[in-house]
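Below sits the subject:

***
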Amino acid sequence: MATIAIKNEFITVIIIFSVEPERQQELIDTITEFLQIVKQQPGFVSANIHKSIDGVKVANYAQWQSQADYENFINNSQVQAKSAKIRAFKPDSHIYEVVISSSKAGTPKIKQGQYITHFAEFRMQPANQPLMIKLAKENIGKAMELPGLISANFHRSLDGTRVINYGQWLDQETIENLKQQPGFGTDSPYWEGIAENEHHLYEVVLTVPNDT
């Protein structure tokens, strides 16, 4: 299983695909096949494949030893030639660092069948990213008061255009309760005017290296 690098001892690469529900499993199978090559690359740490419960997203939460290792992988033409089928699904890929982490269960881990995962994707102009992170820090305490929220982990993309909260929940009911909290629902959320938000619920379907 993977441990979220809350001290940024690894770099995090989050890749999110939008997909038609009838092709979600096809994409997962394609990624799984390609990971047999990826896991052999220098600097690879982990890949963690998530599928959205509504069928329209697939996410890979990946870790590498360093940005140089990841860039060597990206620039390896022989390896990348074998990823053409995946790239046809138009992945949204960015390099991230963890900037906020709060957990009720120690250092957060990614494991199949353990929690419901919530990817909250915030998209913004780079000039707005520092304010988005500041607002997230101000509001995370309120969210963590909910009994079913196990961890919240905010990541900022190095290019300034994304902030992603990787949240772990015991059940969907608690997530619905969060939407009723001031600043989190559709009525004037705390990121209004700063970022656009899209969020989906996921389950972990594959971890490489495998869960132990």
Q: What stands out?
A: Strands lie at 2-3, 11-18, 44-52, 57-64, 92-103, 109-110, 116-123, 149-157, 162-169, 196-208. Residues 131 and 196 are 13 Å apart (CA to CA). The chain has one domain: 2-208.
